[in-house]
UniProtKB/TrEMBL annotation, chains A, B:
The keyword Hydrolase applies. It comes from Lodderomyces beijingensis. Belongs to the peptidase M20A family. NCBIfam families: hydantase. This is Peptidase M20 dimerisation domain-containing protein. Transmembrane segments: none annotated. Keywords: Hydrolase. InterPro entries: Amidase_Cbmase, Bact_exopeptidase_dim_dom, Peptidase_M20. The keyword Hydrolase applies.
Amino acid sequence: MTASIDFNSIKTQKGRLLETIHETAKWGAKGKWGPGETETGVCRLALTDLDKKVRDWFVEQVTDLGCQVKVDQVGNIFAIFPGQNEGVPTGIGSHLDTQPTGGRYDGVLGVLSGLEVLRTLKENDIVPHYPIALVNWTNEEGARFPMSMVASGVWAEAISLQTCLDLESFDDVPRKFGDELKRIGYAGETPASYHANPLACHFEIHIEQGPILENEQKKIGVVVGGQAFEWNMVTVRGKSSHSGTTPMNTRSDSLLATSRIITMAIETAEEHGGLATVGTLSLEPSSVNVIPLEVKFTLDVRHVEDAQLAKIMNVIKKKTEEIATTSINTKYAKPLSVTFDNITTSKAVKFNQTNIDTVKKAALSLFDESQVREIVSGAGHDSCFTSTRIPTSMIFIPSKDGLSHTPEEHSSPEDVENGFQVLLRTVLIYDEMRAKK
Amino acid sequence: MTASIDFNSIKTQKGRLLETIHETAKWGAKGKWGPGETETGVCRLALTDLDKKVRDWFVEQVTDLGCQVKVDQVGNIFAIFPGQNEGVPTGIGSHLDTQPTGGRYDGVLGVLSGLEVLRTLKENDIVPHYPIALVNWTNEEGARFPMSMVASGVWAEAISLQTCLDLESFDDVPRKFGDELKRIGYAGETPASYHANPLACHFEIHIEQGPILENEQKKIGVVVGGQAFEWNMVTVRGKSSHSGTTPMNTRSDSLLATSRIITMAIETAEEHGGLATVGTLSLEPSSVNVIPLEVKFTLDVRHVEDAQLAKIMNVIKKKTEEIATTSINTKYAKPLSVTFDNITTSKAVKFNQTNIDTVKKAALSLFDESQVREIVSGAGHDSCFTSTRIPTSMIFIPSKDGLSHTPEEHSSPEDVENGFQVLLRTVLIYDEMRAKK
């Protein structure tokens, strides 16, 4: 049987994907949150012994399916399922590494859904028009080596090979990315490069990691891109003095100014349809009866449009200046100095319209329009890097309570199955489309 | 010559008090802030070798003046300058210990101004009607042994002897108060008790440690009491989630709620004529792209009236509940849980009217009414404990920029001299009044 769009004739093994997810969770199961055997998270940091075990298992599985396996210079594994024609493979992929307090689904769902696609094709004797490459990207989380999505970044030639290989781990005795890659046997020879080792496109299925699909009772999110974001370290410096002896009208309370800035920044982002979060904050000198001299906090601001993000940041900086230098409603907390130090700015990602349409078509072949929704990814993914070089899009399934990066991270068995079905159909529709060109 | 109110006939040694202050600063000089030899602070923690040195020097000085020296069970030194009559001594005192980042004046000014009073009486052959006890209270700062004003507290029988002796120091190898007292030779046998070792009254001269006198160009503050204050640990608990994937209207951002609470609490205190300060704040989990789950901060609220302090706290708690449980202006940041855990509540201190009038009379014998001001102490002092048992009041001199607990703490030579003159006259007026009873 050749690839075809008669989806109803394809037999799938319902529940097998979830079983596979739970099977691989044995390599790193951690963080028990319920009585059931599968009610734990997973801690499987990149290039550790546990990562080696799941990689070895993965290579064995795809080899059994007849795939050719290529490992590139940063440990990305490309499992090439043969097609009827030679040609650049259709890419699907995600990552098998996790956060230290990771769940069972983040990343893992994407790689194992891809494996389930290959298994299904094999069992149904479907040979696609073109090869399919199932990719396991290295160190997506940036949890052990502090650069998220670094290996898809090298592949996309956005990050240099050497930068990646020289990354030092957060271990007590820090180890280099390149050394750990060799130690576990995944320092491959395939060039880590989108043009030396190309993919025709990239599809990635992932948990949403947010509450939108669940709240709106949607089954599938068709991901159209990723938000722009900017991180700043904000330093507010006032005057330290005794809490009992300093009248209000002579204070320069850096924490009072900070409190106003935080409230204003979050309200400003919200008014413009963006997001703002202060996730870290520290103050000096930190004593109950001393007015803080200096507060430092990180400000994470996001918007789906680059221009809107820039506008929000402008408003926040302008209003911060007003809070710091003039009296706002009250006569105290002035004047202070406030500085913004940019940590990182990431442009908005726009996925390829053809790929978005393909995912949508696949989703609508299974569900009503009311059950499918376009969505913008709030988090970064390997697809954000692949999208800079090749047509890319993503599929989201609901996350229970919007939780992720925690052992309780959960998606229902039904949602896991739905996601796989959409991925399978997406790949086959895209393959058919390539053949017709 | 006997004690008299002909102040103009008394010869004083202008500048000697300041010289003495600088002389004793050699035991602990630290924190250079200017080119001059005296431009450092002092670090002389209670019951250290440095404290022993300044105590030994102090005992030598007062013994030379003909004082009888008594050391009580918590190391308080009572130097009794004889009077014409037997009787309970008129007390003056303060403390020779400092903060780790202390200046040259906090506490030291009070003890050495008392010494200068005794020197002046001696040189002028003035024998007061009643004895004068100059007191060096132990560990006022609570910086080495974590209980401020503990030794005057034991003397006032507000704190038990054993509690004090068992206090453990903040040293790397903690040491007990009682053991250190023995080690430096200041574990005396005089009962630490206001009725076994009484004083007729207590006058204390101190730097203001705030900016009021300086800002209003006053020479002398006549201290009428101490503020009431309440410290709480406030815990705000929301929901932790990803900063990029969590829409604003589904967040329970504990730091946003905290920012609103801090602003509201400070504004509420100010509206009621009180003070509010948040001096410490910590949050979990503390990651740039994670909405904080929990924030803990200390809230220090003060007012000169107990009833007003209670009212402010009620308003703050009520408004906090509103912020935590309902939408205020925006639709996010709800609902959260907020708890207030009381750390300490300290009642307002009212000094004795006769003592206040005595200080005022002394001050007005030297300065215009426009140069003298009644003031409430923002900080705690040994006089707060003595005032619970004996007639007490205090004299403040201006603090440059309101600074204290920092090496730059400064009062001008003129202000130091003024303070001493007011203390001298206060003691003589009070002594005369006792004789006339």
